[in-house]
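Our consortium's second objective concerns turning raw sequence data into structural hypotheses that experimental partners can test. To show how far this objective has progressed, the report includes one record in full. It was chosen at random from the queue rather than selected for favorable results. The single chain below, 493 residues long, was entered without modification.
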Amino acid sequence: MECWNSDIRNPFLYQRDYNFSKNFFTQFSILLKEAPILYVHHTGSVIRSDFTNYSGDDKDCYLSYSVIGCENVLYSENIDKSKNCLDCYVVQKLENSSYNIDCENNYNSHYIIKSQKCIDSFFLYDCVNCQNCCLSSNLRNKQYVFKDKQLIKKEYDIELEKLLLNTYSGLIVAKKYFNDILENKTIHRFAQIYNSQNSTGDYIGNSKNIFESYSVQNSENIRYSYRVLMNAKDSYDNQGLGAGELIYDSVATSFGTYKDNFCYICVGSKECEYSFMCKNCSNCFACSGLKNSQYCILNKKYTKEEYEKLVPEIKKQMSDMPYVDSKGRIYKYGEFFPFELSFFGYNETNANDFFPIKKEEAVHKGYPWKDSENKNYNITINSENLPDSIKDTKDSILYEIISCQNNGDERYQCTTAFKITAEELQFYRQNNIPLPRYCPNCRHYQRLKYRNPMKLYSRSCMNKGCSNTFKTSYAPEHPEIIYCEKCYQQEVY
């Protein structure tokens, strides 16, 4: 990181003239292979968080992805402004919590899904402003509710203690009961859309004019996008967009970007196209690793007049001489980078999280694929032999190599084994939570099962007598009880 940000690095060493006798993407792929790239994407102050990616202003975070403004966060993804959290997915403003999915403003709460402002609670779904509640759903402003029944404090404490949530065996029993609640007793809102107007998709908050997009917060005029936040606006076909405007078909192009097209990890850039890991640049075309630069093509500087004359000629040539991949797909100007230029296998990306396919299908479609590496771990303890209770867990666990119960299952990118870190063990002890039996990758895929895919279906409200229809991410064959917004509000609030 220090080398990348220093003035010693000179990305113009890799400059090249544009060759109109060769297609654009072939020339750009050579630049990508020759010019250095940053090993991770960090923005702002990132302290003791080397093993994170797409992170900004973080401290003491570990093995987490897309982490913004966090401290002491482990094994989490898409987490913002949170502290002392573990194994969370798509959450904001949490503290001292674990296994939260699509949550906000929870404190000291564990195994919580689609809930807000909950304190000292376990196994809740779609609950708001609840305290000391457990194994319940659709609660509002409640305290001491256990299995959807109102109790007094003494009764609640007795029932909670009976669950033995400090043991893995007790946790498994509670999780099974919780899953039954979700399938058979819970009313599911057709979409998680809050304080938003004219919006379709799912997991949308404080936004307006959102069309078929997912995980969007505090933004407007967004279409076909995922993971959009921090007042992004007027953008289309993006993943990982924050504080950008008029951005099209780009990935992780954020923090003051404006009018960028077909870019990857460009920060504070303006009117750039087909560029890769550029920072604070403007009017750059097909560049990699530049910073504080303008009017560049393939990392070569031009005058404003030369640039404005050459770029339209390149765009025309891209359409007249398109790139054709091994499967015959044609890439002209206006297409994102070809699959064949990807540094990652399909199964290494979150595309496989939401649209999982097998290797045979990926190869047939011409997607790159990363085969599993042989893991020659010297496993010292099998996960089934771990202490059932966290109270019986000794410090020696920090030196053990633990087998994962999925035993290398490629569907979950299973690492076959894992270790417990000191920070992790401290969290489990402080919160009276037993040790996990699965590696971090497998735990990630377990969390994904509680989240709907990025696909919409036309369905009708399941409340008797209601004829309202809507677009929802709940597939028709799923068993959950799905209500329209009106019926949901009448029944739950």
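The partners drew two points from this record. The first strand starts at residue 42 and ends at 47. Residues 261 and 273 are 5 Å apart (CA to CA). Both points have been shared with the crystallography group to help prioritize constructs.
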